[in-house]
Task: structure prediction
Amino acid sequence: MINIKIRIKNEEKDINPLNDFLFSKLFGEKGCDKETLYIINTFTGKKFKSLNYEPNEIKGEHKDNKKSITDVLVTTNDGTVVNIEVQLAKQENFHKRSHFYNAKISSILLKVGQNYDKLPMTIMINILNFTLWEEIEDYHTTFKPTEIKHKTHTIKDVMEIHYIELLKFRKKVKKGNIDLNNPIVRIVLFLDEKTPQELIEKVIEMDEFAKTICEKSTHILQDQKEYLAYIRAEQNELDQKAMIKYAKKKGRKEGREEEKVEVAIKLKKLDFPIEQISEVTGMSITKIKEI
Result:
């Protein structure tokens, strides 16, 4: 658990800003504009001045057209669409999932009858608690469509995808290879559950953003219903990690088809994407859809 401490009902507790519920409350609702803009502008180097929140439901990823929920989905003052996603449990081929979300968001926001020149620029910011690019040392990578041979031309008005890999960042922290004067470093330190207590205290002391998030977290979690929702989100994260671990252990055993089916059924009930269930069990997507 991250070493950010707040007082709830006169009791000191640790909190985790990357908790699904709390992250959405801090950055995904009206009234969070300033803090959300700060994260977006800091990670992308842009200078957006304002934003509007969009409905964060995307249809079409799951069977029966169930809805997928994005963490934060906004449109900036110049029409750019920004999606911020936190993914703590490892997902194979996460970059394809990110691309799917990007394409789905674009298709939804381009209204029927509009010309393609109205297609919004989309920016994806993914905060990951696992290693995505083994061959790349940097913890913050940015992708844009670029001409392969000469690399002299980049398509700048279609999409931009950022990945922040926390495991790589922690290695830099452990080696002392970080610069606290860098605002990106301070944001990641503040959000990462493995940040040492002394560094968290320094960040809160230096950074108005961190101070504000601590104060807002305290205010939100004073409400008993909100605090229970926070705890449920923490438990759900633990349950999902346990289920994935169980699936990998049991689901891939040759000649144990009944165990694969059992695991697939449990994962479907938890609304795991069909593609991910296929990856952890070894079953075909067609077979999974049939059970």
About this structure: The two ends are 37 Å apart (CA to CA).
